[in-house]
Amino acid sequence: MIGVFDSGSGGLSVLRALVEELPEQRFVYLGDHGNAPYGQRSADEIYGLTCAGVARLFGLGCSLVILACNTAAAVALRRLQQTWLPARFPEHRVLGVLVPVVESVTQVSWDVKTASPAAGKTTGRVGIFATPRTVESGAYPREIGLRAPSVEVFQQACPDLVQRIEAGATAESLADQVAAEVRALQARAAGGRLDQVILGCTHYPLVESAFRAALPPEVAILSQPKLVAESLADYLRRHPRHRAPKARGQTRIAAFSTAEVKTVRDLGRRFFGETLAFCQIGETSAPAERRPALGAAQAPTTQV
Ligand code: DGL
């Protein structure tokens, strides 16, 4: 199975796109609602929580996990891939959500770490809305700048947006706050035209209409979920061992949360468009009887 991890409900925006792009695959979603939001936590805390979440998904039978959380991907993914993963789970893989976005903005493959003459031709002014920790990490401007130095990047941290979305705020109720963040970003860009913006937190597409209403109509909003889904489809073509085709009678999505299931389930229905049977998973291990049926072939391989 393919694991999808986020600090909370934001990753559902990615899961929705993954299911649309890859309807035959089986997914396991884990929202760390019990520890959300991550965006104001220290880098070490985010790293520890991300490793714990990924380990749980591996324990549930996933060999591949998508970090559907920009904060975790920006702050923890590189360290996790370089140290923790090779030492603990050398056969498993963890991918993030920044790579497809950076490749789309720069039109340069992630494997290319320097600006080629062709990349120098890619220009534009890109705005990024993200959590404080993603902005502080500098991951987006760094990775875009490496490949396409002529692209201008402007970032805007939105401190409590994730918290309000997790509390159930609607796009309408967030309109004023989002409009203020948009004005602040425009001020950073010195009032100049922006070509496109990235909602660089997977929670924000859940209230995308508030961003759309506040941005000038000519500014494109790049769809991170769609880019991630296309990128995963390509990855699975190249790495078939991580494919997880659904057999007859198997559930397509198993959903877990580290918090009380009731509120999470309601939010999930709103954000995902269908009811996901969330199960609560504890600090160490979810009781087997409360886990959704994963199918014998995919029974947990390690304790979570
Ligand atoms: N969805 C996460 C992201 O993409 C939110 C992080 C948080 O919990 O603050 O950054």
Distinctive features:
304 residues, Rossmann fold, 2 domains, alpha/beta, binds D-glutamic acid
In a nutshell, what does this entry contain?
It contains eleven helices and ten strands. It is of the alpha/beta class.
Verbal overview:
The chain has helices at residues 11-21, 43-59, 70-88, 98-106, 132-137, 139-147, 161-166, 175-188, 208-214, 224-238, 261-272; strands at 2-6, 27-31, 64-67, 93-95, 124-130, 151-157, 196-199, 220-222, 253-257, 278-280. With 304 residues, it is an alpha/beta fold. It folds into 2 domains: 2-96 and 226-298, Rossmann fold, CATH 3.40.50.1860; 100-224, 3-Layer(aba) Sandwich (Rossmann fold), CATH 3.40.50.1860. A 6-stranded parallel beta sheet has the order 4-3-1-2-9-10, sandwiched between helices. Strand 1 (2-6), helix 1 and strand 2 form a beta-alpha-beta unit. It is globular. The site of D-glutamic acid has 17 residues, from helix 3.
Write the layout of secondary structure elements.
Layout: E1 2-6, H1 11-21, E2 27-31, H2 43-59, E3 64-67, H3 70-88, E4 93-95, H4 98-106, E5 124-130, H5 132-137, H6 139-147, E6 151-157, H7 161-166, H8 175-188, E7 196-199, H9 208-214, E8 220-222, H10 224-238, E9 253-257, H11 261-272, E10 278-280
Parallel strand pairs: 1-2, 1-3, 2-9, 3-4, 5-6, 5-7, 7-8, 9-10
